[in-house]
Design goal:
Blueprint: H1 4-18, E1 35-37, E2 43-46, H2 59-72, H3 80-84, H4 87-100, E3 104-108, H5 111-116, E4 128-132, H6 137-144, E5 149-153, H7 158-167, E6 174-179, H8 191-201, E7 204-208, H9 223-227, E8 235-239, E9 250-254, H10 256-265, H11 267-270, H12 277-292, H13 294-313, E10 325-331, H14 333-345, E11 348-349, E12 351-353, E13 363-368, H15 375-391
Parallel strand pairs: 2-11, 4-5, 4-6, 6-7, 7-8
Antiparallel strand pairs: 1-2, 3-9, 8-9, 10-13, 12-13
Helix pairs in contact: 2-12, 4-12, 7-8, 13-15
Bound molecules: pyridoxal-5'-phosphate.
């Protein structure tokens, strides 16, 4: 056996470590929540989970998952089209579709799979895919897997999107693909402009609302609700692994002919196992809780607003926005990493993001708020930001 690959890999790991890009995992010894304990024995406040509604360890969600296992079993040991579709899965598809205001929906093991399996069945060589440059990796992979001609526009730049639409004029079908909420800046796609351009140039619109479903918009239906364009988005993909309980699972919702084609041809759907009943049942419960409790959505919004205001008043450079993703801009890469390290020692778990995850010179600490944070948690985090910010000469 040649060991060249293995020694080359070891060299790469050394280089990654030197560049500060090596990813190591912090091991939790508690459930996910606003407060977590780690293997190092620390108890820290957690401001870096996608637990927007605080449902990851909710008693109601856990109970729903347990009830669902009792009623439907643990696993299906099958893909959907062989013997893996239960009434539960059909009910969840109908429920998600109704929630998102679409015609139909199809479940996947994850939103990554939903995106990876979306374009290839719909588009061929004669078609065009027009994509925001900051789209999520799973959309990019989905684009790579399909034969359509690719066009990329500068982030949220509508003039550049229009250029792509003009350049792709001879395509048979065209799809514009965008994240609903972009995870690094926490900004929302300009769906009013995008749907207007799509109508003018006869293109379909696909939105990945993973960072939005459950809490963006008045009733948590996501960025189409936020922009008042529900019904004008042809395809929505999203995850159950963030606001809606945080376990796993994804879905594509949209026009019924599109969903029907995905059921026939989408490879991650056809060749990967059915969503476990516990996850399906708990997701059902999360959607039900959204309908009956206005306070869940309001809490995460209030928390994000409060944190933004406190941090801005303290003199930090906060990217303005309407989401629970709050980038604290530091610009300098070493400062971002050093500050996140210090904050962790002070009991606040946040992550510094540097090049190549964000552009060079745009380093930041990304803070994510949850409905489960209490006001005193946020006050504590802000006080620690202020302490370390002063010590480091940032404010
Ligand atoms: C998190 C995320 C995904 C992946 O979702 P999973 O269900 O965890 O695979 C896809 N797209 C976007 C925009 C995301 O933020």
């Amino acid at each position: 056996m040649s060991r060249k690959m293995l020694t080359d890999f070891s060299k790469t790991f050394g280089e990654l470590r030197q560049q500060g890009l090596y990813k190591s995992e912090r091991i939790l010894t508690s459930p996910q929540g606003p407060e977590i304990t780690t293997k190092a024995g620390e108890t820290v406040l957690n401001f870096c989970a996608n637990n927007y509604l605080g449902l990851s360890n909710s008693r109601d969600i856990i109970q729903a998952a347990q009830d669902s296992m009792d009623a439907w079993g643990y696993g299906l040991s099958s893909v959907r089209f062989i013997c893996g579709t239960q009434a539960l899965h059909k009910e969840l598809e109908a429920e998600v579709s109704a929630f998102l205001g679409t015609e139909d929906a199809i479940l996947y093991a994850a939103c990554f799979d939903a995106n990876a399996g979306l374009f290839e069945p719909l588009l061929g060589e004669a078609d065009a895919l027009i994509s925001d440059e900051l789209n999520h990796a799973s959309i990019i992979d989905g684009v790579r897997l399909c034969k359509a001609k690719r066009f990329r526009y500068s982030h949220s730049d509508m003039a550049d999107l229009e250029r792509c639409l003009k350049e792709s004029a001879d395509a048979r079908y065209r799809v514009i693909a965008t994240d609903g909420v972009f995870s690094m800046d926490g900004d929302i796609a300009k769906l009013s402009n995008i749907t207007t351009l799509a109508a003018r140039y006869d293109a379909l619109v696909m939105v990945d609302d993973s960072h939005a479903t459950g809490y963006i918009g008045n009733t948590g239906r996501g960025t189409p609700e936020y922009h008042g364009v529900t019904g004008r988005i042809d395809i929505i993909t999203t995850t159950f692994g963030k606001a809606l309980g945080g376990a796993s699972g994804g879905v594509t919702a949209g026009r019924k002919e599109i969903i029907e084609m995905l059921r026939q041809r989408s490879r991650p759907y056809l060749f990967s196992n059915t969503l476990p009943p516990a996850v399906a049942g708990a997701t059902f419960k999360a959607l039900a809780m959204l309908k009956t409790s206005g306070t869940l959505i309001q809490s995460v919004k209030d928390n994000a607003k409060y944190f933004r205001k406190m941090m801005t008043d303290a003199g930090f450079d906060i990217k303005p926005g309407d989401t629970a993703i709050v980038p604290v801009m530091l610009y300098d890469e070493t400062k971002a990493v050093a500050m996140a390290d210090r904050l962790l020692k002070e009991g606040v778990y946040v992550i510094g993001f540097c090049y190549p995850v964000v552009p060079k010179g745009r380093a930041r600490i990304r803070v994510q708020l949850s409905a489960a944070h209490k006001k005193e948690n946020i006050d504590f985090a802000v006080s620690k930001f202020v302490k370390t910010g002063r010590e480091m000469g940032i404010i």
